[in-house]
Amino acid sequence: QDGRNRPLSPAAKMAVCEKRQPAAAAARGLGSEAQFLLQADVTAMVREALLKVLEARPEEPVAFLADYFEKLVLSGAGGEAGADPLGLPQRLARALWYVRLAHHSHRPAFSSNVALAYECLSGGARRRRPGLDGRLYSELLQRVCRPGPAPEEAVAALLRKVQCREHEAVPLDVFRYGVLSCAVLREFATKAGALYDALGGCGPADKRLCQAVLRALEEALVDGDLPLPARYLAAGAKLGPDGLALAMDRALRERKLSDAMSREEFLRKAADLFVAKVRPVK
């Protein structure tokens, strides 16, 4: 008991102080770091970025975050009200960025991103009622399609069906329909190119096989129970390996050789099948 009440020597006091200083310094460090994050609004920015990732569901989240923070820096005020509006090229680039964030098969995320692209092109709801004319709408559709695997003739034919006159106001549902149609055409042409490569191997594909696959492709595009252009998303499920194998087997029952079909002709015919099924915008 006397030992416990005995005053500490100067050396002992110094040792106790040395033990307490790191803990106190660490506590002060943690406090200052947390204070810095709050003052710089870093926590809120990171939370907002994560919410954007969950909302957009991009195919490449890391690239999405890099683009998000880059645009945040370039905007200066972080998109606050009162910031200078973007110019037309920047608005088109940002709208295209929104459209390509998520794959069109991820319907909720894709629709949400298309709505953001619509708002971006229409000027935003903060300053006035959203509205978009046919000129900007057509310009965005061309950027969605080009550059891309679809033949130029098919792209032009599709745009004639889904675009509006330059002076016309484009509602959101028409905007979404046109963007989705162009996005599906890009993937449709990509899949058609892969089919041709599988048929031809390292050279031109047999014309009889190509025609059989094109017939199977046309049958897969016919589905009256699904709305346009969502029915085209179901075509891939019908064009499974079994269905294609049966189509090619029927074509190969004749043992005669046939002429070759070029890749360009095959893509053009396949894209024409798709465009023929697209309902024109009225």
Give a structural overview.
The protein is mostly helical. It is built from 14 helices and two strands; from the N terminus they run H-H-H-H-H-H-H-H-H-E-H-H-H-H-E-H. It has a two-stranded antiparallel sheet with strand order 1-2. Helix 8 (152-162) packs antiparallel against helix 9 and helix 9 (172-200) runs antiparallel to helix 14 (263-277). The model is unreliable at 77-84 and 124-128 (pLDDT under 50). Pfam families: RIIa, TPGS1_C. It comes from Nothocercus julius. InterPro entries: cAMP_dep_PK_reg_su_I/II_a/b, DD_TPGS1, TPGS1, TPGS1_C. Residues 90-279 form the Tubulin polyglutamylase complex subunit 1-like C-terminal domain. This is TPGS1 polyglutamylase.
Topology, pairings included?
Blueprint: H1 2-5, H2 10-39, H3 42-56, H4 61-74, H5 88-99, H6 107-122, H7 134-145, H8 152-162, H9 172-200, E1 205-206, H10 207-220, H11 230-233, H12 235-238, H13 241-251, E2 260-261, H14 263-277
Antiparallel strand pairs: 1-2
Helix pairs in contact: 5-6, 5-7, 6-9, 7-9, 8-9, 8-14, 9-14, 10-13, 10-14
| Poorly predicted segments | 77-84, 124-128
Structure classification: mainly alpha
Shape estimate: elongated
According to DSSP, the number of beta strands is: 2
Gap between N and C termini? 97 Å
Order of helices and strands: HHHHHHHHHEHHHHEH
Proportion of residues in helical segments: 55-70%
Q: Mean of residue pLDDT?
A: 74
Radius of gyration, in angstroms, nearest whole number: 30 Å
- The side-by-side strand order for the widest beta sheet comes to 1-2
User: Biggest β-sheet: count, sense, barrel?
Assistant: 2 strands, antiparallel
Please give the count of helices: 14
Strand content: under 5%
GO molecular function: microtubule binding
InterPro entries: cAMP_dep_PK_reg_su_I/II_a/b, DD_TPGS1, TPGS1, TPGS1_C
Protein name: TPGS1 polyglutamylase
